[in-house]
Amino acid sequence: MTKAPPGIAEETVLFFARGHRLQHDRVRDLWIVQAPEKAFVIEGAAPHILRLLDGKRSVGDIIQQLANEFSAPREVIAKDVLALFSELTEKNVLQI
Amino acid sequence: MTLPSPPMSLLAELTHRCPLSCPYCSNPLELERKAAELDTAAWSSVLEQAAELGVLQVHFSGGEPMARSDLVELVAVARRLNLYSNLITSGVLLDEATLESLDKAGLDHVQLSFQDVTETGAERIGGLKGAQARKIAAARLIRASGIPMTLNFVVHRENVAHIPEMFALARDLGAGRVEIAHTQYYGWGLKNLNALLPSREQLEESTRAVEAERAKGGLSIDYVTPDYHADRPKPCMGGWGQRFVNVTPSGRVLPCHAAEIIPDVSFPNVKDATLSEIWNISPLFNMFRGTDWMPEPCRSCERKERDWGGCRCQAMALTGNAANTDPVCELSPFHEQLVQSVEQSVQSLPALTYRRFSPGSSR
Fold it and tell me: Is 0.90 topped by the overall pTM?
């Protein structure tokens, strides 16, 4: 079992904190997160995960959807998703 | 020919009008008047061109951007273009109705400035009676709206000892971020250098106060130091024409807000050329871009792509040649001169020269 970090469970619904949003930078062809007075680039699986945050899907729904989409073991996907959500919640980019 | 990388941020100086008259204002000494300001359509076009070029964030600034009656409309344009909008304001013109309109238009963030924590100190710098109470009321309205807020404190000799109280005020008002920015000595700030520059001891004390607050957590802190006490220059603007583009109230396009002191070059205007042409091919933006323009000691320096030779405007203001190494650098032949002027400055006590429109200026 992949253990969820404190505060984040499969049924948790996360969303971007006010003043933060995911955006595709079409000029540079990059995914970025816009934040107060800065923007940071996100790479790898992160954009695929974050674009599923819609204020309705739970963490579990997102893991399931990615597991289906990428035909990957749920355990593997869950590990990546929880690590990312945990990091961004700690940085106050995401909130519960 | 490869084009330079596109800018990340646009500083939109909507107006130079402002109810305050801070003696360290970042606006140029020669302020632009209302009659010269770009209209709403022209600013909307600037925003469209900026987004097209690759700008991600727009900082609505001034002067006091809230003195423009079309601010809400411009924020809405920025949002439609997916530009992140930041309002840099003194807060003294902010009321509940305007904030609600800005919120609805999609404003992403507010940077609210305070001149000090005490009413006396704040009024002495800002020159506006009752400003402090209005700023505190503005902060509470912003907090209540939920729009993320940064409090900005410009620090100098007179208020630098109040940094711990500045953090306390920020926590009390619910700001998520605080910017403690030592005065930058250009234009008005340079005119008031001898009245504002802190001593080295004061600078060290302010750095300790910032570190102590960081250790407490829960507040995101930006700290900008005055480079006059340093031995190596700052990478000014992340390099000339590399990340930032500034548009003045009348539409002049600059690599930074102080650039109008650079001689022998024409300042392009959005009325005459597109933002993309100006960014990519104008002589002004290419003048100090990259490293090819560098003389020694920068040219052979291993730090040349880290600090980009420091600040061109500072080199101009202090050595008379914008292409010289920033005299803050200990390798600059002018560094010793700077050290001596700093020593003289911290021992003098001149009166403040407040920011004002020059009489008879027609710009």
Answer: yes
Angle between helices B131-145 and B96-105 (to 10 degrees): 40
Give B180's strand partners: B153, B223
B267 contacts: CB under 8 Å, gap ≥ 6: B252, B253, B254, B259, B260, B284
Which residues of chain B have a CB within 8 Å of the CB of A21?
84
- In Å, how far from its chain's centre is CA B228? 17
Amino acid at B242: Q
Q: Do A23 and B56 touch (CB under 8 A)?
A: yes
Q: Which residues of B touch A28 (CB under 8 A)?
A: 6, 54
| 8 A C-beta contact, residue B200 and residue B160 | no
B59 neighbourhood in chain A, CB within 8 Å: 37
CA distance linking residue B12 with residue A75, whole number of Å? 48
Strand partners, A33: A22, A40
Q: ipTM of the predicted structure?
A: 0.88
The pLDDT profile of chain B, 363 residues, written as one tens digit per residue, is 688 999 999 999 999 999 999 999 999 999 999 999 999 999 999 999 999 999 999 999 999 999 999 999 999 999 999 999 999 999 999 999 999 999 999 999 999 999 999 999 999 999 999 999 999 999 999 999 999 999 999 999 999 999 999 999 999 999 999 999 999 999 999 999 999 999 999 999 999 999 999 999 989 999 998 888 889 999 999 999 999 999 999 999 999 999 999 999 999 999 999 999 999 999 999 999 999 999 999 999 999 999 999 999 999 999 999 999 999 999 999 999 888 888 888 888 889 999 998 875 544
According to DSSP, the β-strands at B57-61 and B9-13 are parallel
| Best mutation target, B49, B56, B113, to test chain A (most A CBs within 10 A) | B56
Q: For B146, name the nearest residue in chain A, comparing CA atoms only.
A: A18
CA distance from start to end of chain B: 37
Task: Using the CB atoms, write b or e for B313-326: b if 16+ within 10 Å.
Answer: bbbbbbbeebbbbb
Task: Name the closest residue on chain A to residue B8, using Cα atoms.
Answer: A39
Inspect the interface and report whether the beta carbons of B54 and A27 lie closer than 8 Å. Answer: yes
Helix (H) or strand (E) holding B144: helix B131-145
